[in-house]
Amino acid sequence: MEAPENKILVETEDLGDLKVAIIHYWMVTWRGGEKVIASLLKLFPKADIYTLFYDERVCGSHLEGHRVFASTLNKPVLKKHYQKLFPLFPFGIKSLKLREKYDLIISSESGPAKGIENSYHSPHLCYIHTPMRYCWGYTEPYLLSLPGWSRGLTRYWLKRLKEWDRSTIDRVDAYVANSKNVAERVKKYYGKEAGVCYPPIEADWFEDELVKSKGTHYLSFGAITPYKNIGLLVEAFKKTNSQLIVIGEGSEKNKLKALAPPNVRFLGKLPFEEIKSFIRDSKALLFPGEEDFGMVPLEVMAMGIPVIALKKGGALETVVENDNNPERSSGIFFDEPNCESLLKALTRFETLEHHFDPQWIRSHAKKFSEDVFLKNMSERIIKLLRSKR
User: Fold this and answer.
1) Is the dihedral of CA 229, 230, 234, 236 positive or negative?
2) pLDDT one-digit tens code per residue, 205-224
3) How open is the CA angle 108-110-111, to the nearest 5 degrees?
């Protein structure tokens, strides 16, 4: 049933009746950002999806029953290089015309999604994973990862993109950040206050009975891209006899695999049950990158496994380190992104390894469960809708 013209339904049980448009930067992989979308669709089972790029082979089964609208950029030759097409993002988002008047717009943002044109002035909530990293705060590291000949032109286009991104800040009525870390970045770069709602950890991760880990290897799990810093693990494990399993795909995989010593194995993409098996038998997850939030540590903690993380970014909000009581810890930190600091943490971890309590670690991870996310988001959405009545 449609909401009356001048009334917006704002009770929790009525959210599913709303006409909702969800704008997500791109739908070509199924990782953390897309898992947030999957949870939002439980609140809004009739929502329409708008996105720059759409790969139905990867995402179609997750979006069954929803209308999906892709931008003018959604051509096979362009989709293959989607992350490198940032100069075209404003053009792409402008081509995403909303098909009707919606009761609510939710943009899922770490790119240009919040820039969607809203001619009907529908309430717009932005769930922000981060302001675009290559425009705000991480421009220089990004440029250094590129060939020297391309940096000048790339810098020019990033400046243009940053100006466009700044021009869309006020298109949003309410910002909700995926972490305190990102809320601080929203305040710093956008000058906006953001609420905090941590991303959802799916119930599947909590289903298996907890068993004490066999501790046969360390584990890295997730996308293998430059800012994840998996290269640090490869370098560090050249100096130890411990085994490291690396699960995942990404632009850095082949290069790092060629550099890896025999005690480091790259297994690529694996089925969910195989991933869980490798997690179950691991000593700890290694998390060497500075993430805006990072869902992988919590997914591993949900299975009772501790985490060794770089002491920066979102890990500060998810990993609990208690030096005096490791039984009430979910892992330990290392201070600097270098081999010396990581190897020192590995040595310290192995003196504490048998003190970690899988049940306590799982209980900590449950604070980030999907139920908590849905309750938090419902409350924030209702607050916004009531303010717009």
Assistant:
1) positive
2) 998 888 777 789 999 999 89
3) 100
